[in-house]
Amino acid sequence: MTASIEDRSAEFRRQCRAAGLALTHQRETIFRAVLELGGHPSPEKIYARVKRQIPAISLATVYKNIHTFLDAGLLREVALHHGPLLLESNLEDHHHLVCVGCKSILDLEQEAVEPVSLRRRPPAGYRILRHQVVILGLCPGCARKKT
Ligand SMILES: [Zn+2]
Ligand SMILES: [Zn+2]
């Protein structure tokens, strides 16, 4: 069951208070923009949407707030290890189906993948936080082009 944007915004306000973050109209607008855009928006996309409601806002301010959200665990990045910064609008734990052609990313719900676990102990000193699976494939558009 996916929570509504209203539920998520209420949760966001609660988490801000818990994290000691000032809850500003600006911050709430940026957070909502991520949810409303859906998928995996870039900071530029988020900026373009927020700017319609707050014309005076700058891209740098949007970036700064996104990093504040990431640091506080209010938002997650799509990929931590490469590529440009993209945000998750889906705040549930989930996996990704990535098209190797156009690099589009589709969410797969947690239940779509068999539970994953490490067979061995993690390397010394590592603490595992969660498992995320990336499944590579071709989207319908790219699959058509290949044939
Ligand atoms: Zn594709
Ligand atoms: Zn995702």
Describe the structure.
About 40% of the residues lie in helices and about 10% in strands. It has a 3-stranded mixed β-sheet with strand order 2-1-3, with no helix packed on it. Strand 1 and strand 2 form a beta hairpin. Helix 1 crosses helix 2, helix 2 packs across helix 3 and helix 3 packs across helix 4. The longest helix is centred in the N-terminal third of the chain and has 15 residues. It starts with a helix and ends with a helix. The model has no long low-confidence stretch (mean pLDDT about 90). The structure holds zinc ion (2 copies).
* CATH homologous superfamily annotation of the largest domain: Winged helix-like DNA-binding domain superfamily/Winged helix DNA-binding domain
Query: Tell me, what is the CATH class of the largest domain?
Result: Mainly Alpha
Please give the alpha-carbon distance between the first and last residues.
Answer: 37 Å
Choose one word for the global shape. globular
Evaluate the radius of gyration: 17 Å
Mean pLDDT: 92
* Count of domain modules: 2
Encode the helix/strand succession as letters.
HHHHEEEH
Work out the number of β strands: 3
Ligands bound to this protein structure: zinc ion
Record keyword descriptors for this entry.
147 residues; alpha+beta; Arc Repressor Mutant, subunit A; Dna Ligase, domain 1; 2 domains; three-stranded mixed β-sheet; binds zinc ion
Write the layout of secondary structure elements.
Blueprint: H1 5-19, H2 25-37, H3 43-53, H4 59-72, E1 94-99, E2 105-109, E3 134-137, H5 140-146
Parallel strand pairs: 1-3
Antiparallel strand pairs: 1-2
Helix pairs in contact: 1-2, 2-3, 3-4
Bound molecules: zinc ion (2 copies).
One zinc ion (ZN) binds at residues 40, 78, 88, 90, 94, 96, 107.
